[in-house]
Amino acid sequence: MIPDRPAGTSEPPDEKAGPAAVDKLAPIALDLFCQRCGYNLKGLTSDRCPECGKSLETVRLIEPQIPWVHRKRLGRFRAYWKTVYLAMFHQGRFCEEMARPVSYSDSQRFRWVTILHVYIPILLATICAYQLAPPEPVVMTRSFQVPGGWTQSGPPWFERAYAEIWPVAVLHVCFLLFLAAATGVHSYYFHPRDLPVHVQNRAIALSYYAHAPLAWTPVPIGLAVAAWWLAGSHELTAIGLIAAAVPLLLLELACWWSAIAGFLRDTMPGRKAHFRLVAIALPFLWLALAGVIFFGVSLVVFCVLVVFASLT
């Protein structure tokens, strides 16, 4: 006969159950892949990958770990830059968000905020360059009659528009179109049809966070504007600023390319051939987009100006 257990004491652990009973967790119901080795984790009941031993602690979390998703609690500025830091320096950890639903609308907002980080410095640099440039002498090309019975000399409106207005405006429109296209075209490579639809959707949404390196664009642009400002009085300082701005800009572009390739590798591990193909093709795709947009839009606008000028 087994004696009664004193009150207040707990039942001892079942020694026959062993450690496996303690470590057993709910099975993973989705087709998720280990970020280190590409092992399919579906049905797994442990907290480590059986193939490589990587911890699956963050994979099993329920709440999204992207700071940008929690911007209302963290503040937009802090949430944005924490997301930039994670996307640039902890890509594997970031891509473990594939284990949870990823908000497409949040990723799009992050993408457009990043595009503004690129475009607004370019716009301000253009304004500064226009303000700092020495005024050009006015050349009167022909005379025309104005209401009131007096005569004034000045360039025709078409020549003024061609020389002063439309080139800069068209360049800015083309630049915005290029940014929108270049930050969106890569998503085509993040939804191979052999993956489940929910996995494709999460990979596409996560891919827009790969544009995080573009958030640093104000730094090289600011250095270039400072060099322009100092070009007349401090030549050596201006040269030094340009020498710093150009490598920083090239480094930023390289980090952008590397981030997209890294996100592709980490969201869909085990697809080495697909990864290499995209990594090689992506710079050429950007160059093709730039050529089509800048040349095509400029040509259309020029033709429109010519037609309007011929009608006046």
Model description:
With 312 residues, the chain is mostly helical. The chain folds into 2 domains: 24-60, no CATH class; 103-134 and 153-311, no CATH class. Helices cover 58% and strands 3% of the residues. It has a two-stranded antiparallel sheet. β1 and β2 (151-154) form a beta hairpin. The protein is elongated. Residues 1-23 and 137-155 have low confidence and may be disordered.
Care to give the gist of this entry?
The chain is an all-alpha fold. It has ten helices and two strands; from the N terminus they run αααααββααααα. The chain is elongated and about 75 Å long.
**Straight-line distance between termini:** 113 Å
Shape: elongated
Assess the beta-strand content as a share of residues: under 5%
The secondary-structure element order is: HHHHHEEHHHHH
Task: Tell me the number of helical segments per DSSP (H or I, 4 or more residues long).
Answer: 10
Find the count of extended strands (DSSP E, 2+ residues): 2
Chain oligomer state:
single chain
In the predicted model, the low-confidence regions spanning at least 5 consecutive residues are: 1-23, 137-155
Count of discrete domains: 2
Could you report the average pLDDT, rounded to the nearest whole number? Answer: 78
The percent range for helix content is 55-70%
